[in-house]
User: What shape does this take?
Amino acid sequence: MNRIQIIQDDITRLSVDAIVNAANESLLGGGGVDGAIHRAAGPELLIECRTLSGCPTGQAKITKGHRLPARFVIHTVGPIWLGGHEGEAELLASCYRNSMQLAIAKGLSSIAFPAISCGVYGYPIEPAAQIAVKTIAETLQSSDQMEKVYLVCFGDKVLTAYTQALNQCLSKSQAST
Ligand code: APR
Assistant: This one.
């Protein structure tokens, strides 16, 4: 669990192996963190994304980082919140799981996630943070390769939710040892 670290920062500034982009299924850019990543990475990122033919919700695809300090960008598409009865929780978990597995398969040892679906896509932050921490912790249990996972918060509400989710996960894992 100590491999997971919550930070407040702009994800485009992080010098990690991979940053995760909260994209849409076209992978052709947008607003929010998607827009920030494309602006910082430069036009070559969009040119590379065009070769990927999009990405279904819950899945993840990897590109180079181009002008970003990060070596790679893992583009994942979170679910749009529709009230919680359309499989949103499992799709969000799949975003974290597939991004982690893609990074591990690529041999990466550090990754940074934004709060996927918690902006434009309207996912309630508290349950989204619980899903993020639980899924990442589960993936880390089966891999020593990944040394650092940053949960990048962009605002106090997300920071509070992630901190509570991580503390709960820590206390559960300590109780079970
Ligand atoms: N660094 C870190 N986090 C950021 C940054 C940044 N530079 N910019 C925004 N965020 C945060 C938001 O505050 C939010 O907590 O990323 C989280 C995800 O919000 P969005 O970027 O709106 O992503 P999402 O809710 O998944 O919606 C995806 O929005 O931008 C479009 O093309 C994107 O259609 C897709 C949709």
About this structure: The first strand starts at residue 4 and ends at 8. The beta strands are 4-8, 18-23, 60-64, 72-77, 110-113, 148-153.
